[in-house]
Amino acid sequence: MSEPLTTVAAICLRLSENIASGLFAAEGRLPSERQLSEQFATTRITLREALSQLEGQGLIYRQVRRGWFVSPPRIVYNPLQRSHFHAMAREQGRSAKTEVIDAKELIACDAVCAKLSLPKDSAVYCIRRLRYIDGRPVLYVEHYLNPKYFPQILSVDLTQSLTDLYSSKYGMSYGRVRFDMLPTRLPEDASSALKVAPGSPALFITRTNRDQHDRVIDCDLEYWRYDALHIDVEVN
Description:
Keywords: DNA-binding, Transcription, Transcription regulation. The chain has 236 residues and is of the alpha+beta class. It is built from seven helices and ten strands. It has helices at 7-20, 33-39, 44-56, 85-91, 110-115, 162-170, 188-194; strands at 60-63, 67-70, 75-77, 96-107, 123-133, 136-145, 174-185, 201-211, 216-225, 229-231. Helix 1 (7-20) crosses helix 3.
């Protein structure tokens, strides 16, 4: 004889079924916590535990001061494919947008200098961008560039693909790329941009790029919403 479901498990099961059936189709927004508490005849504490479990499964997400929403399909990301963000989204029938937060020259921290093979306290270009899929912010990224290779780049339109910009303006293409991927918690700058609570789970991807001449030209620090990305790699 099976054990009866706990209240939390029962709420998770019912909400999962409602999500699968498309019940929350209007912007994917769930009823308020007060309404859900009344619907399931439970306390806010118990309800939030259930919502947190569904969030951990990537089924729902919370926007600060807006409530809970059904997570859209994840974007599929293959690090082995040389495809930029907008092209990747377009190939999957999704809509992409890039917003520049700021772009400036600064003295890089030791970790960034090491990744760019530069001496300590070197000046670099830092471009911070927020990237959207279907109108939802999913990626906060800090690009660090060696200024030697990109004169006057801060004065051009940086909402475009840097891959395309490097090619068209500087005759530069990517060669070898190193990826480091770690689960992490969002720092304050990233969580604020992504409109989620500080410390929310994320996937942190560091990408160090070399050009066709094997020179280290830039590195990217990417903070992805953990429920937005599906990494898919096939190796022959």
